[in-house]
Design brief:
279 residues, elongated, 2 domains, 11 helices, mainly alpha, 56% helix, two-stranded antiparallel sheet, 2% strand
Length: 279
């Protein structure tokens, strides 16, 4: 029987040792093992703050001292990852080698930034965006199509959440346009315009579902290039990646403001429709 590979390793949440027979949960991003109950209680990896620096678990936590005598470090190769199979879901296991490689790939692509920078900036939903970014950065052909339900169904709130303020404002303006038609339309046209508004809203949702990821990708590239300018000679340092992660961290405050703005626009459209019907 193979030796339990997490024996006496430290859970990053409760700081207690792991032993054979414990219910283990492994972070799909960095590979750090946890007690499953600790992982579920925290609802995220115990070393999530180190993901932005490209941390990959190799037998010890970032703040743990190296044991003496020093043992050979374990690198995230295919052979080593084979021993992790069975600890995480099969579909996650199949993707893990590529994710590890992309999280550590600091080679600039055709867009001038690295995959590591893109994933650090993304901050959350790394699994989804890693596949999308990989497709957009393919050599030989340009791909702009993807699929993101949240980007379309919750527009423009989702765009504000992702700090894509310009796109969010444009989407708000698009929803404001029908209100002007309601104000100018006569009673006989109101039903037709109402149907046109619904069609416009549906088209906007479909378009943002299909192109939302590409718009976020272009936004991320622009922000990363700007951050590179701020850091100049310090690009690639832990401080740079920390700042990049913070800059790309989704904003619940912006999302709340976007939601309130959307409700205000909807109220204006409804009021305009009622006005055109009465008069």
């Amino acid at each position: 029987m193979d030796e339990f590979r997490f024996e006496n390793k430290t859970c990053p949440v409760c700081r207690k040792k792991l032993h054979e027979g414990d219910d283990i949960a492994v972070c799909p991003v960095c590979g750090t093992p946890h007690h499953r109950s600790c992982y579920l209680e925290k609802n995220e990896c115990g070393v999530n703050d180190f993901h932005a620096q490209g941390f990959v678990w190799e037998g010890r936590l970032p703040d743990e001292p190296v044991e003496i005598p020093v043992t050979k470090e374990v690198s995230p190769t295919e052979e080593n990852l084979d021993s992790a199979q069975g600890q995480i879901p099969d579909e996650v296991y199949e993707m893990l080698p590529d994710i590890v490689k992309m999280m550590n790939d600091d080679r600039p692509g055709k867009d001038g930034v690295s995959m590591k920078e893109l994933l650090v900036y993304t901050n959350t939903s790394v699994w989804h965006y890693s596949a999308a970014f990989k497709a957009f950065r393919q050599e030989g052909k340009k791909r702009v199509l993807g699929f993101n339900v949240c980007s379309g169904l919750f527009a423009p709130i989702f765009q504000f959440y992702r700090k894509m303020d310009a796109v969010g404002i444009i989407l708000l303006i698009i929803t404001l346009v029908p209100a002007a038609f309601f104000l100018m339309a006569g009673e006989g046209l109101s039903n037709g315009i109402y149907m046109a508004v619904n069609i416009l809203s549906l088209l906007q949702t479909i378009i943002m579902c299909i192109f939302g990821d590409y718009l976020f990708y272009k936004h991320a590239v622009r922000r990363i290039r700007k951050m590179r300018g701020y850091f100049s000679e310090n690009v690639g340092t832990p401080e740079y990646y920390e700042a990049l992660s913070e800059d790309g961290r989704p904003s619940f405050g912006r999302a709340a403001l976007g939601f309130l703005a959307s409700m205000l626009v909807e109220a204006c459209v409804i009021a305009a429709a009622a006005h055109s019907t009465v008069f």
